[in-house]
Design a protein that fits this description.
This protein has 233 residues and is of the alpha+beta class. 40% of the residues lie in helices and 17% in strands. A hairpin with a 6-residue loop joins strand 5 and strand 6. The longest helix is centred in the middle third of the chain and has 23 residues.
């Protein structure tokens, strides 16, 4: 069991780098600044501190990636947040789209013993309500082999498996269009010049069409499957 004991600011930076893929590849500092709604100058200053503390590596002109120590802290924060999301949805019956930001507030004030008591109370869930894996008590996470909806081609169908962590506003926007884990989607059309996708959401006669920009489509993770296979599941 791990307990980072780090400041909220350090935790938020490390978690943001992790959510942007910083375990595997460098993430531009500008993307981290944008995600946290801070200035590039502030983000660069914090990155210097995190390099000194050996939580991240910095590659000039490429960005930052997490060290093993930085990843453990990030996963500890992610574990707390996703467990709280499960509690808020499953036991307090709060809106699926609203719990992300609420859980963000709770994650920094949760001690290790509370985190593990919460996990036991919930039955040690493997995924959060948005379909993302919950790291275990040692900070290990089982990564899913999903792909962004944005890379599918016209005519391809898929089942939504997870929504990449974002704000409650983004979650609500997707939920209003029934773009949630378990839903089946088909690419009907793709506008040129990186224009929006037209999606068929749902099964056959119950399907509705919605438009979704590529930026948001990047946040929707799917398991690409032939429709005949989906029907037989």
């Amino acid at each position: 069991m791990i307990d980072s004991g780090k400041s909220e600011s350090v935790e938020m930076y490390l978690k943001s780098v992790a959510e942007l893929g910083g375990e595997y590849k460098p993430v531009p500092i500008g993307r981290v600044a944008e995600r946290l709604s801070v200035s590039p100058v502030s983000a660069n200053e914090m990155m210097k501190r995190l390099v000194e503390q050996k939580y991240i590596n910095h590659q000039p002109y490429k960005g930052v990636s997490l060290t093993a120590g930085g990843q453990r802290i990030a996963n500890s924060v992610i574990r707390r947040q996703r467990l709280w999301e499960c509690f808020l949805v499953d036991h307090l019956k709060l809106d699926w789209a609203k719990v992300h930001d609420l859980a963000c507030d709770l994650e920094h004030a949760t001690a290790a013993e509370v985190t593990e008591a919460l996990a036991d109370y919930l039955g040690n869930p493997a995924k959060c309500p948005h379909g993302n894996p919950i790291p275990d008590r040692d900070g290990q996470i089982r990564h899913q082999q999903n792909i962004p909806l944005s890379i599918l081609e016209v005519g391809q169908e898929a089942r939504i498996k997870a929504i990449v962590p974002e704000s409650s506003d983004v979650m609500a926007y997707l939920a209003d269009r029934a773009l949630q884990p378990g839903q089946i989607v088909k690419i009907v059309d793709a506008a040129p010049l990186k224009g929006p996708l037209t999606l068929s959401v749902g099964r056959h006669g119950e399907a509705t069409e919605v438009a979704l920009g590529l930026t948001l489509a990047d946040l929707v993770l799917v398991d690409k499957t032939e429709f005949s296979s989906i029907e037989n599941q």
